């Protein structure tokens, strides 16, 4: 295994001093890249995920084409429900569809905590191949969806702005909900540990829908399960927790022992630091839609963000995934402005 030529990200995650701020973008492998769009026209989403060669090719693209300081494995959070026994379809321009969602205790009997080495082996093969292909250029990030976010899809059966059916399920059948959350948690811990063995240098937990919960429900339905995952992984590799919209819980998330907290664009850098404290790295928080602004405005806004967060214990990123209609030169302008800072 080649020694890392660029370890800025890992040093920032460990709280070490870096000569400049490291930068990468959520959803950087895909959607907006012309070479990815060509592959999308040829192969279905899960074909791209489940073919280690294709997943590697897509993962490495933004490292060479945009100049990011890390690669994140091309996969999807919904491979976990799939491995647990649910049918998952990803339909272009519509999004995820789970045709047989969880409605009650009987549906849990159809699910299992799988042997991830068997059901998710294609992810580990992709990680190993990507690690080899990167040849030490940049660190490789593994990831999973947080249990609450996965429950949302598994119960709602599709994407939603409010996930009201998923919330109603948790309020009406709390025992079943917690049983499901624990099954997802156990699967995720095993899955992430194997990702690290396969070559991931660090991992990120995505709680995309954490911000839909009240602070009390966030603790009960999300954070207590993420806490288990962080506890199981933090001595194995650096861990980032990103709960979109849940800025109100930055202090509690910092207390999990995670190395880094992702923040979205709805909170000022100084406020995020005040809530999170000084013993954790912050990552974020550029509004992805702002990458559609003229390039001089992007550069100005990026510099403002960097001045807000400062250089120490900070990783520049977007506050959520890059949008499919962002021009590649705008993404490059974001990366280059951080590197010049």
TrEMBL record:
The keyword Signal does not apply. Pathway: Porphyrin-containing compound metabolism; protoporphyrin-IX biosynthesis; coproporphyrinogen-III from 5-aminolevulinate: step 4/4. PROSITE patterns: UROD_1 (PS00906). Keywords: Cytoplasm, Decarboxylase, Lyase, Porphyrin biosynthesis. The record marks 76 as: Transition state stabilizer. It catalyses: uroporphyrinogen III + 4 H(+) = coproporphyrinogen III + 4 CO2. One of its GO terms (molecular function) is uroporphyrinogen decarboxylase activity. InterPro entries: UROD/MetE-like_sf (IPR038071), Uroporphyrinogen_deCO2ase_HemE (IPR006361), Uroporphyrinogen_deCOase (IPR000257). The keyword Cytoplasm applies. It is found in: Cytoplasm. Substrate binds at residues 27-31, 46, 76, 153, 208, 320. Pfam families: URO-D (PF01208). Residues 22-31 form the Uroporphyrinogen decarboxylase (URO-D) domain. Homodimer. Catalyzes the decarboxylation of four acetate groups of uroporphyrinogen-III to yield coproporphyrinogen-III. This is Uroporphyrinogen decarboxylase. It comes from Chitinophaga filiformis (Myxococcus filiformis). The gene is hemE.
């Amino acid at each position: 295994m080649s020694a890392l030529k660029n370890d800025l990200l890992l040093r920032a995650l460990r709280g070490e001093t870096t000569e400049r701020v490291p930068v990468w973008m959520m959803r950087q492998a895909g959607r907006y890249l012309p070479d990815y769009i060509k592959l999308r026209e040829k192969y279905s989403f899960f074909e791209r995920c489940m073919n280690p060669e294709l997943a590697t090719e897509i993962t490495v693209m933004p490292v060479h084409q945009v100049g990011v300081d890390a690669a994140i494995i091309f996969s999807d959070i919904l491979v976990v429900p799939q491995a647990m026994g649910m049918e998952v379809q990803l339909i272009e321009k519509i999004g995820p569809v789970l045709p047989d969602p969880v409605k009650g205790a009987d549906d849990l009997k159809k699910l299992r905590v799988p042997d991830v080495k068997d059901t998710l082996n294609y992810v580990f093969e992709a990680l190993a191949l990507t690690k080899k292909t990167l040849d030490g250029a940049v660190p490789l990030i593994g990831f999973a969806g947080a249990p609450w976010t996965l429950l949302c899809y598994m119960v709602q059966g599709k994407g939603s702005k409010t996930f009201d059916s998923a919330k109603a399920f948790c309020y009406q059948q709390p025992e079943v909900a917690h049983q499901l959350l624990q099954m997802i948690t156990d699967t995720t811990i095993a899955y992430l540990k194997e990702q690290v063995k396969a070559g991931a240098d660090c991992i990120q937990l995505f709680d995309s829908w954490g911000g839909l919960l009240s602070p009390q429900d966030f603790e009960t339905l999300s954070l207590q399960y993420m806490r288990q995952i962080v506890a199981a992984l933090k001595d194995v590799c650096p861990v980032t927790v990103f709960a979109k919209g849940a800025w109100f819980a930055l202090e509690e998330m910092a207390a999990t022992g995670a190395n880094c907290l992702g923040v979205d664009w709805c909170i000022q850098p100084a406020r995020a630091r005040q809530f999170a404290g000084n013993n954790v790295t912050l990552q974020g928080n550029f509004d992805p839609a702002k990458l559609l602004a003229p390039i001089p405005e992007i550069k100005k806004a990026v510099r403002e963000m960097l001045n807000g967060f400062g250089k120490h214990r900070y990783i520049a990123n977007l506050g959520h995934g890059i949008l499919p209609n962002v021009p590649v030169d705008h993404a490059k302008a974001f990366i280059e402005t951080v590197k010049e800072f």
